[in-house]
Amino acid sequence: MRALRPRAVRRAWAGWKDGHPVPARVLSLAVTALALGLVVVALLLPNKQEQFRLAAFTRIPVEALLGAAVLIALPRRPRIAVAVFGGACLGVLTVLNLTDIEFNQYLGRSFNVILDWQLLDDARSYLADTLGGTVALLAAVGAVLLVLAVLAVMALAVVRVGNFLGRDKARSTRGLLLVSAVWMTCSTLNLQVSGVPLASEHTITMLKYHEQALRSTIRDEREFAKTARVDAFGDTPGSQLVPDLRGKDMIFTFIESYGRSAIEDPIEAPGVDRTLADSTQALAKAGFHAKSGWLTSATYGGGSWLGHSTTMSGLWIDNQNRYRTVTSGDHLTLTKAFQKTGAWDTVGVMPGVQKGWPEAKWYGLDKVYNAFQVGYEGPKFSWSTMPDQYALEAFQRLEHSKKRDKPLMGFVILTSSHQPWAPIPKMVPWDQLGDGSVFKGIEAAGTKPQDIITDPTRSREEYGKSVQYSVTALTQWLERYGNDNTVLVFLGDHQPIARVSGNHASRDVPISIVAKDPKVLGKISGWGWTDGLRPAHDAPVWKMSAFRDRFLTAYGSTPHPSKG
């Protein structure tokens, strides 16, 4: 049967209305009311999940009154054109607010329309690694269709409301004046419901917010480029960098998503704290001692590379623009300081890197092993390409165990505690790791991502277990392979997502320095850090960007500033 043509559809609809006037009128009013409701909801839509409450949607948006005035004043054809454009703009703002909700939930901040587009591709890759390529493709297609649907529906809704207002301009004008008087009264008297003003300017406020964010981003790019060219140790000769660590094997290790919540959250902390206490005791038996404190990360919930680069550069790198700026320059990183001395071999182990990584030069790494260069033949654990235990054993086999003319500086990024924290690897005997095939049964028997990804309580439980695993793998590696000249610095890159760390959680992460030589820890005795691997609640908290200069100074480096 041939599809009905639009003209035939209109004739059939007109005939049905003529034959059923009352139902037709009720249906028409219901559709108009729905369109008006959609417009009002879009104008009042918050951009943070915790702001979703009934009072937020019981306000009178001034933007609706202004828009109604314009639509009433215009003739039919210009009114439809303006309504379509205005509806599409309202759809764009709705999409931005919905995107802000997700970004605030996962990264603790709003979406930046200049900097964050590439993170959408990272999100697609994360879904592919976690739930499979088909799910990621469907999610991407669904997201595009949802955006188009929001734009179309909002445009149609505004057109519908505009046509209703234009049908009887005199009555619409009287109604508009009445509602405007109510809005002005509420605004003047500051009338509120549950602490929320009835007279709303929410959309204007959001537009100002996004406009200010754009201006701030553009201004920040210029200012940060100047800041990155100034470095307190930029012109320090290699002979005057970290002289008090000569002869030591230095290992800098980041544990993915290892944040303060792992140590202090009531669900996550008991297991993690027990692991830290047990590991502190085991290391002490092996002759190692530790001091621990807190750093406030430049990122939250994701963007691990921002935490890595902030710690190593001594610059506050909290967005992708800053990251691109600093990594394309020659600002001295902590790892590069060791390379500059000429007294260390510098090596990176990056199991999360699966493509070219030009940042290796900026970090000052002579050699880098990515996910495909460590001989791993076992399964992936969701996003994580390999268990931390294997990555550490590969570091031992490929570099740390080798006899060399000078000590080693290692930069190791561990990934097993990356979300979605399912499945989680288990420790196996170190001498049975082989090529990693031993993990196939462990991965197959583990919890599936889809079983916990929408359950906040289970996510918190599994997150805590993943941190326990990572800490255990790292400290056992140190017990097994560390010697009198091994110094380990390990820390978290950022807190886990808000679904796990909680809304408005701090950005603090633990950091520990572990060594056998008492002189190493003696150099930082004035820092006020806590003995052992678990920092006390009231231990000092520094910005992550402060660590590089404090570390270089503590171990005898002499500042020679570069001025750009």
TrEMBL record:
Keywords: Membrane, Transmembrane, Transmembrane helix. It comes from Streptomyces anandii. It comes from the Bacteria. The chain crosses the membrane at residues 26-46, 52-73, 80-99, 135-163, 175-193. Coiled coil: none annotated. This is CDP-alcohol phosphatidyltransferase. The keyword Membrane applies.
